[in-house]
Amino acid sequence: GDALVSDVCGALGTIDVLINNAGPFVRARTLFAEYDTATIDMLMRANALAPMHLDRLVLPHMRARQWGRIVHLGFAHAAEARGWTDRAAYAAAKCALVSLTKSLADEEARHGITVNMVCPGDIRDAYKHMRIADVRGRTDTRNPGVRPGTGEDIARVVAFLCDDDSDYVTGAVIDVHGGYDPMLR
Fold this sequence. Notes:
The chain has about 180 residues and is an alpha/beta fold. It contains 5 helices and 4 strands.
């Protein structure tokens, strides 16, 4: 984390926006009792602790400018902190980010920093790289009557949250899921 922030600041001068998007998801459904310790540790470190550490490292740079945008990524309905059978460790990590998002939003508002969370639905495979226009007219079998979600759907919300004029929006957890509910699938 320290080296990453140092390299970015060396190349760009400062860090204004941090999008915490990286984090592994184990697609295989596994009951919590069947997880091994290494998998639990990996999911918690990558999905909760790594964003926490990066947030802490960039905050001084954002505070110095009295401006910054932090966006965390979660999963559909993460703000409700419901149980997610077969995905307990991942869900716990992302729900921790919900709390961090709201806590940092309150703590950093006086420094001109907004902190929000975007919670995508199940946007898979090629759809992650598609634009909205590419999927117009298609249907999503997981959400009857709704087109499939795309990477552009998520990017548009993230871009909005990073805009200068979005300074009134902080502590928000925004679902972008087309009605998809992962707990029902």
